[in-house]
Design a protein that fits this description.
The protein is mainly beta and 136 residues long. It has one domain (9-55, 71-135): 2,3-Dihydroxybiphenyl 1,2-Dioxygenase, domain 1 (Roll), CATH 3.10.180. The chain has 2 helices and 8 strands; from the N terminus they run βαββββαβββ. It has helices spanning 15-25, 81-89; strands spanning 9-12, 29-34, 39-44, 47-53, 72-77, 96-105, 108-118, 124-135. The strands form 2 sheets. A 4-stranded mixed beta sheet has the order 1-4-3-2, with helices on one face. A 4-stranded mixed beta sheet has the order 5-8-7-6, with no helix packed on it. The model has no long low-confidence stretch (mean pLDDT 96).
Length: 136
């Protein structure tokens, strides 16, 4: 396995619950685990995350839900619909409903069909399907 140059590590309140959410509902794959540390490295279509139950090792202050305030993690996927179907089947709430967004990059627009959810601790996850480019 090749490690990405940037891999966010999320501190979670309940390791088992978070692992089930990421693997069973979203479809992430477990790359490796350290059960004794309540830690795992997971991946999904080239994106990588680490989750670890809060142990105060990395704490810089008091953690309060929702965690990750001020950041969202964009996760590019082949298609968003299978994830949406799984979320609906598991009655998991959508934070921002799916929509098309076009973002300017120099003299062109980059398109994404995207939606946002919060994980069990409130981390904001933005799943994005590439729609290609078009001129301004």
């Amino acid at each position: 396995m090749k490690f990405n140059k940037l891999i966010p590590e999320l501190s979670v309140t309940n390791f088992e619950s978070s692992l089930e959410f990421y693997t069973k509902i979203l479809g992430f794959k477990i790359e490796y685990k350290r059960d004794e540390s309540k830690f795992t490295m997971i991946s999904f279509q080239g994106s990588q995350l680490m989750i670890e139950e809060i142990n105060n090792h990395w704490s810089t202050g008091k953690l309060e839900k929702p965690f990750g305030r001020g950041i969202n993690f964009q996760i590019e996927v082949d298609k968003i619909q299978p994830i949406l179907d799984s979320l609906k089947q598991n009655k998991y709430p959508i934070f921002v409903e799916p929509k098309e967004n076009w973002y300017r990059q120099e003299n062109q627009l980059l398109g994404n069909k995207e939606f946002l959810i919060q994980d069990p601790d409130g981390y904001l996850l933005r799943f994005a399907e590439d729609l290609g480019t078009k001129p301004l």
